[in-house]
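Work Package 3 (structural annotation) set out to generate three-dimensional models for the target panel prioritized at the project kickoff. During this period the team completed the workflow that converts sequence records into discrete structure tokens, so that structures can be stored uniformly alongside our sequence database. As a representative example, we reproduce one entry of 336 residues exactly as it appears in the project archive.
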Amino acid sequence: MNDRAVELLEQYEIEVLRTRKGRGAIVCDTDQGCLILKEYTGNSDRIQLQNRLLQRISEKGLIQAERIVPARDGSLLVKDMDGTEYVLKTWLEGRECNIYDRSECSSAVSLLAQLHQCMELPGDTPGLPAAFSPEKEYEKHNRELRRVRKFLKQKGQKTWFEISLQNTFDYFLEQAQEVTEEWKEYSAQAKVQTTPDSSLVTFCHGDYQYHNILKGSNGWFLVNFEKCLPDNPIRDLYLLMRKLLEKGNWSVSLGTELLAAYEKESPLPAMSRIDLYYRLAYPEKFWKIANFYYNSGKAWIPGRNQEKLEKLIAQEKEKQHFLDEVFRSISGMRST
């Protein structure tokens, strides 16, 4: 971050006691506590929406989360001489959630359930983006996968990674297409069976993973809401569970504990459980590996790509066992 950004702090009603560089940011000790100044790359509508959501969370008082600190003139963003925009937010000096500690993982999921009780805005809130559509997202992923498969088939001399990728492609592509079609069917049924309340719009954090779940002396603190968006709260639960389960080799006991921790705070409706099942069942990790390969330079393929692919293939049996055990009633629908 440009050192000149420190001068921007003069635009705020704060007394700066000390500053230090953080990861792509400036951490400030002030008379109003610890704050962080970060570069902002979104648009003005986006920051206004994020601020309304953070205010809603603060008003509810169920959890601790970052807040945006306005400048003296009330603006949420300030600019440096180059026109680069920055945002000042409250911050916590703490550590990230320990993904290898089951009790902390369960606490993170419980915290998420409490967060979701605060993540609603009125339907007439200015600047509301369109609701996210998993079906459209999966269809887009499937088109990208077919493009990569075609490229691999037409490629001449292949590396070991490309051979490994091609050998597993049909299996995962078929899985992706099957999950997409089934999810579209059940989603259509849900829309017929339920009448959404247009007076309120439910949001997700959008990037709820251990990097953004901090623990300090006063408990847990949530940060980085830049990716918040309208979607089923299951989106956040899916992202965190997938990350933790990949680390835990798709442990049935771990997955069961995480679901129980969430439902202790907020029981899941039947359609939300089906939603979670299909998001976990879709081979997103395979899509990420294939898409990254296709969109990057192929003259040299990092060895890390091969490691990720090998781990994905090695865990596939455990993943399917996990889905069958934890979502037995839903996975049974796929064979009927």
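DSSP finds ten helices and eleven strands in the chain.
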